[in-house]
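Can anyone check this?
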Amino acid sequence: MSQFFQIHQDNPQSRLVRQAVEIIHNGGVIVYPTDSGYALGCAIGDKSAADRIKSIRRLDDKHNFTLVCRDLSDISTYAKVDNSTYRLLKNHTPGAYTFILPATSEVPRRLLHPKRRQIGIRVPDNRIAQALLEELGEPLMSSTLIMPGEEMPMTDPYEIRQMLEHAVDLIIDGGFCGMEPTSVVDLTDDTPVVLREGAGDISGF
């Protein structure tokens, strides 16, 4: 049976944030809010927790997880970023974007695209997510909470609890946080390519 924390959207309670991070450190899978809906998350190096996320969403090994980062300082650890890309990222973070970037050797192999050394990275504009990442001190390995056969992410924490309370370790109720997935922008070549138009404004690309 999962735990259920109600965390304030604007002033996340430090005690609950610390408890949530402890659950992640202990191998837990959590449901948490972002600026584009709810997501599943776990520690970056935890294979069994990642496998549980794949099982919940019925994903195959080709699925790309996203590294959800606190800020741009995390990005440079896990992705190769030149000056012009850095400026572009700085102008669009935090925000509802997932950026596809060339991965560094810090990224576990199982998180990478099977044929290309690329990783999806994002910096969410959500205070609860930011508080979790600040306390965790490293990115969260994440996947949008879209259930098998559905096209849109789940948005109601109580529905999520009903459906997943035996499958995850913690559900964070952070209120309504949108239901449109991120815009996905490929920055692996010289020219940005928008792969999916979502919540983030793509006019700057």
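Reply from J.R.: I decoded it. The chain has a mean pLDDT of 91.
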